[in-house]
Amino acid sequence: MVIFIMKFITTLINRTMKLALMAIFLSSSVSCQQPPKIFLENYKKIDLLITNGKLLDGLGNPAILADLVIVGDEIVFIGESQFTKEDLVNRVKQHIDAKKQYISPGFIDLHSHGDPLTTPRFENFLAMGVTTITLGQDGDSPKVDDLSRWLETVEEKGLGVNLAMFVGHGTLRELSEINQIVVPTEKALNNMLQRLDETLKYTFGLSMGLEYNPGLYAEKEELIAIAKIVGKNNRMIMSHMRNEDNDQLEKSIQELMIQGQFSKIHISHIKSVYGKGTKEAEDILRILQDARNSGMNITADIYPYNASYAGISLLFPVWAKTTQQFELALITRKEELKTFLRNKIIKRNGPSATLFGTPPYTGKTLEDLMDEFKLPFEDVLIKLGPKGASAAYFIMDDELQSRLLVAEGIAISSDGSPTGFHPRGHGTFAKIIGKYVKGKKLLRLPEAIKKMTSQSANILGITNRGVLKVGKKADIIIFDLDKVTATASYSKPHLLAEGFTTVIVNGKVARNEKEMAYLNYGKVLKPD
Ligand SMILES: [Zn+2]
Q1: How far apart are CA 318 and CA 226, in angstroms?
Q2: What is the distance in A from the centroid of ligand 1 to the CA of 4?
Q3: What average pLDDT does the chain have?
Q4: What are the domain boundaries of the chain?
Q5: How far apart are the CA of 243 and the centre of ligand 1, in A?
């Protein structure tokens, strides 16, 4: 009996040990990559080898120590490469020792501006780790009959970063000669829909700018008609919504959700103008969650600054936004216009909260111009006119915007450009790490990286970028976490971000913080 019990216990111990060993084996074989030897046989030449880095995959997983091997524009191996000295000499074209720095996918900016024909390099974006930008935003894309031809010219000229292009609703309205007409004729509407249908074949979606002329003239039926075309093409609508004021925000989201019944929808640079505190942020997040629960595909992006930036026509009433309307208003409704502008500026935190960013007023506030012109601020604005300047407006609450920014479903954008007089164009992606990861510690590094890489790629429908995995395109950044800094400020908005030591675009080193000798390796991306 005793012997039997002993045997039983021994069997039990053996089994448990076997199971434990098997578990160890399984877990190690899961985390273990393709065996290096097979890999070594597969590729005679290695274009780029990055060793010693702490690799963040972009999916939110913790960093792992791994080497990364690139052939052409593709990641072909992640793991322990075990190259011999001989291999390094004979087979590896370029070797970067990441020296315990982080390696992550290049950032994808969901809302960017700029003219690739005048500033094709986009150094501001590369310097803050961005390898893909999105243009044609806020309803405004190049006003050309054939956007595909324009994109060819852009690519021929060379691009520092990859470009995911959108077609603008306001521009399509202009090309179809609808302009400021509220209800287009059937012929004009069909013309616009046909242009949209054709352009969506090679762009990532439609952008809308319902706060701007001429997008603001569009009404429900038009919005539905265009959403149907976007949905049919399996693309998305990115919207600068009609009104971002805290008391109008829900209404604006609901207007976008009408389109969401027919296509994927996305809120550009989500913000609550004049809103305050986390409770308001929670309310906004609840609206988005409810929409998702009801089956709608709705996403959003946000930038980490509390001032917006736009043309001052934004301050003018709908009946005085264009030069023609404005001139007429000066004759027929001048006092009404003055009252409107006065109330608007008071609501927008007063004249000191508007900072001009275009010459000859660059760096001056509306308050400064009051002193300079010896005029009340509403008269200063009338003197400039709706097309007279662009400005930064300090109208957001840090607590509210920060709550939105860290929320799970919200990805990052800069809304910046190489030339705009706002620090977001040079600082955004460094500031996310500087303020939210290192400073306030509201995001873990892998989470922050995910918001700037795979999450953005998912929103755009880009399947081969935004993640570090074998088979994906090699858009990769190497950064020194301690040194990542957004140096751009409101007074010096054009200072390049620091800490991103190497930026790789399509498998090639596009920027190196030390050497400063580069070529353009960006591509015009094609949607799936
Ligand atoms: Zn916008």
Answers
A1: 23
A2: 78
A3: 92
A4: 310-394
A5: 11
